[in-house]
């Protein structure tokens, strides 16, 4: 029963995958659809013509037309090979692009970050995206050859059934156990090796650590090569012994079934020899029978091998379709527009914990901010500062309470319209490896080609000085991995990210430690332009530099997810001991 339901599932995914071919390339798929049965039937046709020729020769009524038919059939059989290869290549290219574009479009539908916190989802996403560039090749190669083998086998069965339906049936039956075992083994090896089993994930991480630029410095400085190579080797040995077992079982099973199949073939041969001896069939038929038997056996094994390799790909496709069908739990279906007369933001008894965590990252947070105010958010590491603004950006939904703008729950607003009104520089800002023009301009996609706005934003974000001194142009490519690409220092990248945020016409600006990698002069300049730029804008800036808080109208002090102070800097210094201690501690370190 389990096998039947698995088989049905397999056929369903196969069908779904075939629909992808169609969607990706209608013309190429149609030509292939015509070509597959032709290719599949040619072997039987050639055998049949040979049989008629043989009988003609034996009975002295050979017709020369048969040679022409045979020649045509033979030409078709060889000519379809290069045509098929080229078409499969074209289809593969189109399918790879199609699958990847669909994946990217699906990613655009995921508005929040909740799903990314789910290890299973994240693993699936990694698998689906990293293999999307080659899995479709297998899907096409094995999928097409499987269909072709099935048609060939069926046509051979028809030829064989001319001699004995019984023998045709037995041969067909012998496929089933071998197939079940092959699929089972294929699934095992997929789970062990290909999917993100914890061990597979570990070895991938070890090799990446040594091979990517990200960790190159520490790996070299601390001499970590042997450590990671040994770790890789140890985990690999463990996995390898599991895989070796799987592969040896596969080999023994195949040998047993090949033995059964050889036995069946010998049995059929003895049977037909007997028939010839009894003069029940002609000697010509013997040759045809043997060719059919050999061709059928070859096709049966090709079918088993290709379909079990296809099975592996279908397990991947299942993950792909699962990803394509995934739905976010958070509701992003709100339709309200962001108010034109934006007046206030209210956090109302808001509590939040990250998915899978019991601890509250924010605990009953309530405060009110008026449009145009500059709010500094301060607190120790892990006190909830970034979380507070992530909820404002609607990356997560609160567990309790809500955030309102002009008294309307932000969850009721259209997410894309809502986010157009927000701009941010994150602690872990993105480094877009694109021409400078785009890397800055992406902050406001509508102004991507507005060179003056881009230059203004670079001036405000303090990147312009670097731009001039290094003789860069708007078309200079960022990222050493590209031809003529350049890299920037940490602080320069940060200034670029700030410039990007300054591109936006947003009403609310969020800066999560915007000056962490900046030198004091750049920090001063950034804050100067910041004051200029953010007139009439509502600004939240998270900072550990207490000197910056003086720029804020009010300071929000967080401690372990709770608000412990919300007032102007001067008043807090007078009335809030926790804040005053925090401030004085830093002030002292500069004395
Ligand atoms: N993605 C996450 N999943 C689970 N817990 C998280 C996640 N991000 C943050 N946390 C936890 O939530 C709490 C608040 O984190 P948050 O990043 O908001 O602190 P923060 O005040 O911005 O800290 P820092 O000053 O170090 O940047 C911390 O206990 C942190 O460990």
From TrEMBL:
According to the entry, every stretch annotated as the ABC transmembrane type-1 domain falls at: 144-312
Instruction: State its location(s).
Output: Cell membrane
Any transmembrane segments, and where? 20-47, 67-87, 139-159, 165-185, 252-273, 285-304
- Keyword Oxidoreductase attributed: no
Q: Which InterPro entries match?
A: AAA+_ATPase, ABC1_TM_dom, ABC1_TM_sf, ABC_transporter-like_ATP-bd, ABC_transporter-like_CS, P-loop_NTPase, Type_1_exporter
Under Gene3D superfamilies, the record lists: ABC transporter type 1, transmembrane domain (1.20.1560.10), P-loop containing nucleotide triphosphate hydrolases (3.40.50.300)
SMART domains in the record: AAA (SM00382)
Q: Give the ABC transporter domain ranges.
A: 345-585
Question: Which molecular function terms from Gene Ontology are attached?
Answer: ATP binding
What kind of membrane protein is this, topologically? Multi-pass membrane protein
Keyword terms of this UniProt record? ATP-binding, Membrane, Nucleotide-binding, Transmembrane, Transmembrane helix
The name under which this protein is listed is ABC transporter ATP-binding protein/permease
Q: What lineage is this protein's organism placed in?
A: Bacteria, Bacillati, Bacillota, Bacilli, Lactobacillales
